[in-house]
Design brief:
A 4-stranded antiparallel sheet has the order 1-2-3-4, covered by helices on one side. It has 145 residues and is of the alpha+beta class. The termini are far apart.
Amino acid sequence: MAGRRSGGMLAIAAAMVVAACASHEEAARDTLARAVTCPIERVTATQIDGVRWSEVRKREHPIPDPPADILADPQRLALWQAKHAPYSEGFDWYYKAFHVAGCGHEAEYLCQCPIDAPAWRQYACHCETATVPLVAGTRRPGPDR
């Protein structure tokens, strides 16, 4: 009996993991569908591997060069760098990047879902458009172009 119960629980857990992965994708598709008034069935989303949230944010908001007096003082320089580099790599796993297309439009989104949200609560997930290409050196598509 215990073997059957644990097998059933494993199947449920596996389904929840698959559903949780799909919720990022569904949020990406929904974001474009709403932005360009396109039926959701006509919107596709492809995950972009290797995109790190912290790197995208650092490219969006580069750290300015410190003044000469701060640059000359190692302690002040450390404080300057900590103050101007607020994007922790600890959040990279929380976001997934997608290229989304539908109804003649395309966009790139960084999508995240709350850690504690059940997989079926896709409305808890949201996507945002980066102001720089998600992959450095490429053109940034967007529904407003």
